[in-house]
From TrEMBL:
<dbReference type="GO" id="GO:0043161">
    <property type="term" value="P:proteasome-mediated ubiquitin-dependent protein catabolic process"/>
</dbReference>
<dbReference type="GO" id="GO:0005634">
    <property type="term" value="C:nucleus"/>
</dbReference>
<dbReference type="InterPro" id="IPR048570">
    <property type="entry name" value="PSMD1_RPN2_N"/>
</dbReference>
<dbReference type="Pfam" id="PF21505">
    <property type="entry name" value="RPN2_N"/>
</dbReference>
<dbReference type="GO" id="GO:0034515">
    <property type="term" value="C:proteasome storage granule"/>
</dbReference>
<dbReference type="GO" id="GO:0008540">
    <property type="term" value="C:proteasome regulatory particle, base subcomplex"/>
</dbReference>
<protein>
    <recommendedName>
        <fullName>26S proteasome non-ATPase regulatory subunit 1/RPN2 N-terminal domain-containing protein</fullName>
    </recommendedName>
</protein>
<keyword id="KW-0677">Repeat</keyword>
<feature type="domain" description="26S proteasome non-ATPase regulatory subunit 1/RPN2 N-terminal">
    <location>
        <begin position="9"/>
        <end position="208"/>
    </location>
</feature>
């Protein structure tokens, strides 16, 4: 039986990043993306080269370059940089991916977004705008939870992130509205302390208790 070939180094793949032909660079990035968990220390020495591809607006696969850099930073333990480049990867950063990398960055994205929304609610001066790429990731997470029928998870994320529009969407889609509203009451003890937000939050719940003629308070 023929022996299965194994790759012991990313050196050959990294060399292709310096080739003039764009298709070779694309092949190199795709290959690096599949082996980054094995060779991230070696690949890390070429981060500036891969970053330059991401920064090149004429390069066809900038988002793939960002994804590779994000994964390298993740394995190096640099979660801030990993998230920054994950944002640059756009839809290539798959919120449905079942991996430690995806789970860690999704959790960080959620924390970052929730922190921003909390700061914005307390700001007395003109607030900075949230990075639309970060918001897009959080919205994709929320939409996936609703589509998968994970309504309680979607409610928890929506409440934490102060996205009452997404909270309503999860409540409406849930097949047990009474249970959903009771769950939201429990969530309020942990995530709803700011006075103005508390008023907005309970206004949403009261809307559905009246519509459904149920008593939860």
């Amino acid at each position: 039986m023929a022996a299965v070939a194994t790759v012991s180094s990313a050196g050959g793949i990294l060399a292709m990043l310096h080739e003039p032909a764009e298709e070779l660079k694309l092949h190199a990035l795709a290959s690096l993306n599949s082996v980054v968990h094995l060779f991230y220390p070696e690949i890390s020495t070429s981060i500036p080269t891969i970053e330059s591809l991401y920064e090149d607006e004429e390069f066809d696969q900038r988002q793939l370059a960002a994804l590779v850099v994000s994964k390298v930073f993740y394995y190096l333990g640099e979660l801030n940089d990993a998230l920054l480049y994950a944002l640059g990867a756009g839809p290539l950063f798959d919120v449905s991916e079942d991996s430690d990398y995806a789970h860690a960055l999704l959790a960080k994205a959620l924390d970052e977004y929730a922190s921003f929304k909390t700061r914005a609610s307390k700001a007395t001066e003109e607030e900075e705008n949230v990075d639309p790429r970060l918001e897009a990731i959080v919205e994709r997470m929320l939409e996936k939870c609703v589509l998968d029928g994970k309504y309680q998870q979607a409610m928890g994320m929506a409440v934490e992130c102060r996205r009452l529009d997404k909270l309503e969407e999860a409540i409406v889609r849930c097949d047990n509205i009474h249970g959903a509203l009771s769950y939201c009451i429990n969530l309020s003890h942990q995530y709803v302390s700011h006075r103005e937000y508390r008023c907005e939050f309970f206004a949403v719940l009261l809307k559905y208790t009246r519509l459904c003629r149920i008593q939860i308070f």
